[in-house]
Amino acid sequence: MPPPEGYPPERNLQDLTRHAADFEARKGFTFTVLDPVDGDVIGCVYLYPPEREGFDVAVQSWVRASHASLDGPLAETLVDWIAEDWPWERSDRYGR
After folding, report:
1. Among 84, 83, 85, which Cα is nearest to 93's?
2. What number of other Cβ atoms are within 10 A of residue 59's Cβ?
């Protein structure tokens, strides 16, 4: 999760470049969460190889503080999306 003040542009570019390379190599998948009304970026979703035994995928997400009320609903929506559209059966949701 980014710090509340955000990242400097250089750091943000580094992260975007790394995530794009992971996506291209099929090592990890990062998605931007957009506000359906105005298209503003409100969060992010990360699907990466699990770090802990017994899981197929590690799932993390965050939303901007201005959209904090959507954090739980986003995390729950991911459960259905992964079950319906991805090949994984055991998601590590880090205690969610």
Report:
1. 83
2. 23
